[in-house]
Amino acid sequence: MRLYRGAFDSETLYGDPLAQAEAYEEAGAGMLHLVDLDAARTGEPVNAAVVARILASVRMPVEVAGGVRSERRAGELFELGAARVVLGTAALTEPGLLERLTRAYPGRIALGLDHRRGEAGASEVAVAGWERSSGVPLLDAVRRFSELELGAIVVTDIVRDGTLEGPDLEGYALVLGATVRPLVASGGVAGPADLAALAAIEVDGRRLAGAIVGRALLSGAMTLKEAMAACAP
Fold this sequence. Notes:
By secondary structure, the chain is an alpha/beta fold. The chain has helices spanning 17-26, 37-42, 48-57, 71-80, 89-93, 95-104, 138-145, 169-176, 192-199, 215-218, 224-231, and strands at residues 2-4, 7-12, 32-35, 62-65, 84-87, 109-117, 123-127, 132-137, 152-157, 183-186, 202-203, 206-207, 210-212.
């Protein structure tokens, strides 16, 4: 399932997620970014069985996001085989949880920061499946949590997510300059040219660690082979 600009009433279904994951692995994907969107919204892992089946069925590293709001759930995902676990809402509502998890699993916890512009015009981090604003400016959150031993910071531009309108290149350059942690871009990628543009961003000798592509692959606008070629050094 994919959303359009984070709206749950605009979802698009793309078939069996396990079959899709296996197809990506067969095509040579290096890592799968797996999101339980229902859990992100409610905090309840209603799709836990599906997530577990995918983790048991593929050999490539899987990064799991959505509704991880306790040490117990993070531990369960690692026991099931997750390579990395993403905290979003919980990082803002329970920063102590993020701190404890990065100590317990150094380099294996990612921070998910989904953002949209608030009333004051600045980008603010959203929580609860993108439905509420935390009131925390994006760059403030990036700087605050960069002190922790994070495996990555995943920044999603909600307004562009699922639109195929292209990523916010200037925005990612600003975030890259605000952290020493690996930065992964998400939202708006439409084709190989967008990935090449993201790969070309450089700030103080540092580049993005990766980019997440969803709708462009699922809709057939771009093949995985084309995506990987565009990111090749």
